[in-house]
Design the sequence.
């Protein structure tokens, strides 16, 4: 058997598809020829390693090419790729668009580097913002000139009605505060009860006059009370003369406060 015939029938020999005579001749040639013997051993070792190892997973580019050839309607254009770029980076891209977007990124050389460039640009912007920059000279004057037409700042005051409303709101805030709300409620309740019970005409002035009258009656009743006389006598015992003077003053006040009896007129004799 020649070496070329050995190489051509090597696959059939390994699969056991040769006849008995051809199988024996093939084995004899492999034993006599060192080159063919080495080739046979290499092929056997390669087949054993392939059977022992798992097949590698298909790459993303291979899957994208297969789907692009078999289902071209699922492909995405470069314009759609750029439109959905922000949603892809934010993680808001739906699953159907997500796979189409990644297949286009794997096939298109121009769009493959675009996401990385955008991410690097965003990072550079954040780094630039974090660094405090000095205000350019003359920027304030240019802003005033562009907005007001002059470089002199003017005082802008709100209208008179707006100022009055703001001041009234400040007064009302004091009244409606929680610490004053209870006091205000109690005052209003006292005025309401007093005008309907004490006042004669239902007004605040009538309530005031009635209060003054009740205070005068209370004072007159307290001054004519015999308890004050006993208190004065006790003070006279403890202190001495000043207490007597005080007792005399209290007695004088009692005599003044009590109405004096009118002298009886003599009735004419019949």
Sequence:
């Amino acid at each position: 058997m020649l070496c070329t015939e050995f190489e051509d029938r090597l696959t059939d020999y390994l699969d056991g598809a040769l006849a008995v005579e051809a199988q024996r001749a093939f084995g004899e040639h492999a034993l006599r020829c060192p080159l063919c013997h080495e080739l046979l051993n290499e092929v056997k070792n390669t087949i054993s390693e392939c059977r022992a190892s798992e097949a590698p997973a298909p790459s993303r580019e291979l899957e994208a090419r297969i789907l692009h050839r078999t289902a071209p309607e699922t492909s995405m254009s470069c314009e759609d790729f750029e439109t959905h770029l922000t949603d892809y980076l934010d993680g808001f891209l739906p699953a159907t668009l997500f796979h189409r977007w990644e297949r286009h990124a794997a096939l298109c050389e121009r769009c493959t580097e675009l996401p990385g460039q955008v991410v690097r640009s965003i990072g550079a912007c954040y780094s630039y913002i974090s660094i405090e920059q000095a205000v350019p000279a003359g920027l304030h004057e240019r802003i005033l000139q562009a907005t007001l037409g002059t470089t002199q700042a003017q005082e802008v005051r709100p209208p008179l009605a707006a100022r009055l409303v703001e001041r009234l709101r400040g007064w009302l805030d004091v009244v409606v505060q929680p610490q004053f709300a209870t006091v205000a409620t109690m005052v209003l309740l006292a005025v309401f009860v007093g005008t309907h019970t004490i006042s004669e005409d239902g007004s605040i002035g009538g309530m005031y006059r009635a209060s003054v009258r009740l205070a005068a009656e209370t004072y007159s009743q307290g001054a004519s009370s015999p308890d004050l006389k006993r208190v004065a006598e006790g003070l006279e015992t403890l202190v001495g003369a000043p207490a007597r003077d005080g007792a005399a003053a209290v007695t004088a006040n009692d005599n003044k406060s009590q109405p004096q009896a009118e002298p009886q007129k003599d009735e004419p004799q019949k």
About this structure: DSSP finds 16 helices and no strands in the chain.
